[in-house]
Automatic annotation (TrEMBL):
Taxonomic lineage of the native organism: Bacteria, Bacillati, Actinomycetota, Actinomycetes, Pseudonocardiales
Pfam family, one: PIG-L
Keywords, sorted A to Z: Zinc
InterPro entries per record: GlcNAc_PI_deacetylase-related (IPR003737), LmbE-like_dom_sf (IPR024078)
PANTHER family for the chain: LMBE FAMILY PROTEIN, N-ACETYLGLUCOSAMINYL-PHOSPHATIDYLINOSITOL DE-N-ACETYLASE-RELATED
Name recorded for this polypeptide: PIG-L family deacetylase
Source superkingdom: Bacteria
């Protein structure tokens, strides 16, 4: 496979848009920690509250708990602005309502970079992706265009925003770029560990943050100078 290029860092603000609590923490949070340490302003928007994410916990209990864990997780990588939408966990639909909500956030936050999760059908290695990730990622890409068109979603009462330079999708099987996270790897581990209830309900490799994230970072690093790294599919506007 071809070597990965460095993600450009000629920007000062970003908006992360993902489906669920924990989505960015499985790989991308190391880049977030690096960038906030550089003084970049980063906010998070989550399409749902993760209420259907723990099999042993009723949604009414699970949702508020996962919101708290996500806020703690963001704090571990230097992010304090965290917003949640109320699309239903597990059955988030791609469509105009989702695009509208994301476009509104882009117009409010005015990011230069929009970061989302993998919206392809599979993960690196071939594992099947899930519908929520695909819907939110694809809606995010489209909402970047929507946010800049003054004739779309006029009822939002927000000025259009055409300032997005890049859309970066974490952990894509079509990754083109990477970020050196050697200095921010520990923060990424702490960010994932903040999802205590979620991790406690898991089994297997994904339940143990440090070795799981290290293995991923080493694998990406093989295509990025041998350092610990995290990958992105970069779309330029």
């Amino acid at each position: 496979m071809a070597d990965l290029e460095a993600v450009p860092e000629d920007w000062s603000s970003a908006l992360v848009v993902v489906a669920h609590p924990d989505d960015m923490e499985y790989g991308g949070a190391g880049a977030i920690a690096r960038w906030t340490a550089q003084g970049k302003k980063i906010a998070y928007l989550l399409a749902c509250r993760g209420e259907a994410g723990i099999d042993t916990m009723e949604p009414a209990v699970c949702g508020p708990l996962r919101v708290e864990e996500q806020i703690a997780s963001c704090a571990a990588v230097g992010v304090t602005e965290v917003e949640f939408l109320d699309h239903p966990d597990g059955v988030i639909e791609y469509g105009v309502p989702l695009r509208r909500d994301i476009a509104a956030a882009i117009r409010r936050h005015k990011p230069e970079v929009v970061i989302t999760g993998n919206f392809r059908e599979t993960w690196p290695g071939g594992g099947l992706n899930m519908a929520d990730h695909i819907a939110v990622g694809r809606a995010t890409v489209d909402a970047v265009r929507d946010a800049g068109n003054r004739w779309i979603f006029q009822d939002l009462g927000l000025e259009p925003w055409n300032g997005v330079k890049y859309v970066a999708a974490a952990s894509s099987p079509l990754a083109t770029h990477a970020v050196d996270i050697a200095d921010s790897f520990d923060a990424s581990v702490e960010s994932l560990r903040a999802h205590k209830a979620y991790l406690a309900a898991l089994s297997g490799d994904m339940a143990d943050p440090e070795p799981f994230l290290r293995s991923m970072a080493e694998m990406v690093g093989q295509r990025f100078g041998g350092t610990l790294a995290t990958s992105f599919e970069l779309l330029r506007l």
